[in-house]
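Quick one:
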Amino acid sequence: MSYRNYNYGECGNYLGQNLLDEPEKVATDPVLSFEAALWFWMNPHSTGAPSCHEVITGEWSPSEADIEAGRKPGFGMLTNIITNGGECTKDGKTRQQNRIDYYLRYCDMLKVDPGDNLYCDNQETFEDNGLLKMVGTM
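Output:
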């Protein structure tokens, strides 16, 4: 979970913790760490991204804007959400490829279909909230 108000702030508010001032609690408290991970997985993001759960269970359908941005259901969409596009480059030695390789390995071990759209290099990221846009222009 990245250290930004729209993750630690919202998650902390939901869990009744001050994670903006004490983000290390997520790393040092195993129960809080698990709760934060579940919160991140289950909730839509203030950047406009759907929840990871909605994507992987097929509950999310791309809007016209998502389609124009190249966003499609699949593992690539999860990578886009989790890393906010930070791993969405097409290079054989990238973190994106490592993530896909691990995913395919576990899909093979569990004998499940990995589905389509494994890569996110052709997807635009979701917009940051207005505060982050303002800070970037100052």
